[in-house]
Design goal:
Keywords: 2Fe-2S, Iron, Iron-sulfur, Metal-binding. The protein has 121 residues and is mainly beta. 0% of the residues lie in helices and 36% in strands.
Length: 121
Amino acid sequence: MKPPEADNPARPPAGVRLCALAELADPGARGFRFRVERAMFAGFIVREGFTVRGWVDSCPHNNWPLSVMDDRYLTREGDRIICAAHGALFRLDGLCVAGPCADDRLTPWPVAVVGGEVVTA
C-alpha cells in the first residue's frame, strides 16, 4: 500500500533541485513546501556528512509538522531530529527513540545528491 503522501499532487516529481549540498550545514536540515492549488506537500532534508536523507514533515504521533520554525529540525547537538510539538526524538535515519511515537518511523521522501546538488528522487 502506498503512503498517502505518494498521491499528493503537490509532491514534487523526481529531479527537482532543492539546494546545493554546500548550502546545507553538516549536520544540518532544511524544510521545503510545495503547493499545487489547494494541496500542499511539506518535506525536509537532513545532512550528515555526505549523506542526505529526506523526510515528509509530519510526526507519526499526530501528523503535525515537526518544526514550528523554519529549518529547526535538529537538536542543538545535531544528532537527533526533534518534534517541536511534544519533544519526540528521532535518529537521523528516521527511527523514533523517545516520546509517544517510540519505535515508529518518519515517512521517507526520496532525495539524492547529484553533481553537488540535492534533488528529489
